[in-house]
Amino acid sequence: MVAHKKHDGKMTSKIARLAAVHGKKLVLVSLAGMIWIQPFSVLESFTGTTSTAYAADNQTVQLSSEMITSGAKLVKYQYTTTRSGKSVKVLADVVEVDLSNPYVQLDVMTGKNGQVTTRQSVEGMAQETGAVAGINGDFFATSGQGVAMGPAVSRGVLVTSPAQLNGMFAFAVKSDNTPMIDQFSFSGSVITEDGSVFPLTGINQESYRTEPDNGYSHVNNMFIYTSDWKSEERPKASGTTPTEVLVQGGVIQQISHKSAIPGTVPADGYILRAHGLAADFIASHMQIGQRVDTNYRLVSQSSGMEYNPSDLKMVIGGHTLLVDQGAASSFTRSTTSISGSSAVARTAVGYSKDGTKVYLITAEKNSASSGLTLAELQKFMTSIGVWKGMNLDGGGSTTMVTRPLAENTAQLTFTTSNGSAGQRAVVNGLGVYSTAPAGTLQGLKVSGSKTLLIGQTVPYTLKGYDNYYNPIDTSGIQATWSASNSNVSWTGDGFKGVKAGTAKITAASGSATSSMDVTVLGGTDMDTLTPVTTYAPLEAGTSVSVPVTAKLKSGSTVNIPDESLKWTFSGMKAAVQNGVLTIQSINNGAKVAYATPSYDGFSGTPIVFSVSAEQVWETFENISYPVSFTGLPAEATGKVSVVQGTGEREKSKVLQLDYDLTLGTGNKFAYAQLNGTTGRTIPEGATSMSVDVLGDASLNWLRAEFEDADGKAVYADLIRPLDFTGWRTLTADLTASALKHPVKLKRLYVVNLEDGQDERALAGSISFDNIRFTAPVTGGDTGLPSATAVMVAGSKTMTVDGKKVTMDAVPLIKDGVTYVPIRYVVDAFGGQATWTAASKKITVTRGLTVLELTVGKKEYLLNGAAKQGTVTPLITNGRTLVPLRMVSEQLGITVNWEQKTKSITLQS
């Protein structure tokens, strides 16, 4: 929240008076909901151009500011712009780094383990390298090997050279700790023992087309590859036949003419990779045992100055220049390929006029923010004090991580534009690192979840940070915990949610206190409440895992603990304990039963329990689809075929899987693919699978792989280890696999793990026969009545098998859609309809079908799976009506419409 200017003036005067009283400068520090007054020397100052709460045009508002570490802070902004005549607010996050502070530094984070040709999320790179903050970095070809297009220098070592592309800028910090944004080229040479010299074109670069000549990067050129390059292909798909030279200790160890040297680059050496004229030079001037030397540097395109990599602390490449001398600059290359005129997530870096402050900038694109165009990004950057700045990779790559006060690792600062898909794996990033020594305790912070559920106990801890804003050990600090009201209660191990609402929890240690606002979620916060298990067999003694997930109205999802749920049962007696439901007895004559979870009065999707039967799904006697073999890694070989069985199965056909996993490394897999790569649909609501297996006593594992309605792969172990020969029936329980139907069985396969590989057979043969699924019975077996019912639009009278029934609401036609009171339909055809007023939700159960509709929402749930409708239920004259055709057909009831009489005939 931004205070009014008059209020700011009064606060400033008050602080000045306090300073005069104590004879020193003071600063206000916000600490977990408390306001502390601390000496100014404890809070690190920032020099250089300061950010203002408002830009001159009143478009940029600072929302918050929090220290990350000494010399770095996170500042959150709201930027307002106008698009198509409408005001649009965008969220931007900026990490400000003070280069004059001796305890903070910037560096490049590269892929996994600091190696080129690998990719990792920004959060992963930050945690791997110990960064306290970071953003994604350079552009890269998403279909390539994973190499930055621009230069990268980390701790004075050149990791990648800049590609020969026009208008690409890079950000650097020189050895004197001053920042620089410039275009760089690469200059290097190889000097042989006879004094001959050949130019180097680059270091650790993949193949690309050069600009402006559109040439092939590796033709007639020589590149150097170091151990920072992980891939064995140097590079992939270059279109040239290489000659390679391995150099260790400055001496040529190996020369491979017109072929690559196998393996990766050794840590104590490098490989020269040459083609054409460069390869001819090697043939003429290099021999094994001779000495060879290389030198290379980066050259400024603006000044011509040469930079030895060791004179640079770090360099990271980017795209177009955005800001120069405090104003928006012309774009230095086309921005079409990066959607320059579209509002997307953006990443940029820049520095202040005096060169002491660096800005790591991201613009959010998510449910709370619409992203920025490049022109808008330029205006935002100048509004916060950027003197010179450039664009970094954006869109789905845009990511920022920051370490909250008192925490040990950096975490996502905002939701990326990828949403539920999470963070994109990128080739490098720009990290912020603390070099401060261990400090003294400065502040405390309550740490733990900001949301609780009723009945749930959540642990909270008291964490601390030192005078450098780095986490400090607080294990010896004893605290007393309290809550502001009865919405939560302290149990000795944590706070327990008692009733919906908010509360302030406080930890006190001596005279120091720290607080946190927490929210106890109520039923009104729920949007859906869905058990992972959809179907289960109706049989006394059956036990099934029943985890429940809630989708909140805020859009997030939470797993509901068992202690927060209540269950109601229909058609059976059952109990739930520790997340497991056990059927105690079945009501007389019941063929279908339901278990419905609820939370604080909000009812969830019922689990359907049905009389089940084992169904033979595949005997392999007359299959009409293809079967095939696939192995991983690529060296794994084998064969899958339908053959005549032997021995006790000599009169049957079986699916035989032969495998040979002797080659390749790591975990190995031999797959029997069913129906190509698509698989085959299994029975609806299947709760278990059985298959007859001819074992080979290989001690490998045997698994089945399914694909559910969301495209998610689900794995079921058949046996681990496979320790028998001869035929045996194996069974896999599917009730806890979170399968969303329709589900396909894609493949059966052998798993040979690297761990213990010497104990397992690497080659063998197994066979499968008689795949069966236990699934709910359907149709008349569920005990549902058959009937014929007739309704007439506008009439409160309906007939069911010729008998008149009076309804309390009339069917109506609106926009060509017929709406009816659903209760009378399920009364006639079997089932139940319940209405939840708080959420305006109708839940209809009939046989094996559970249908949930919400007034005003086109999305509905069918047996727990989200579906999209074209119309919504509506309320008229105090009664809720549902779209007849959509609902009836989902329930297995046919609908016929007679235009002349406006009558609706329902049959099942």
Automatic annotation (TrEMBL):
Residues 799-905 form the Copper amine oxidase-like N-terminal domain. InterPro entries: Cu_amine_oxidase-like_N (IPR012854), Mao_N_sf (IPR036582), NAGPA (IPR018711). It comes from the Bacteria. Residues 244-433 form the Phosphodiester glycosidase domain. This is Copper amine oxidase. It comes from Paenibacillus antibioticophila.
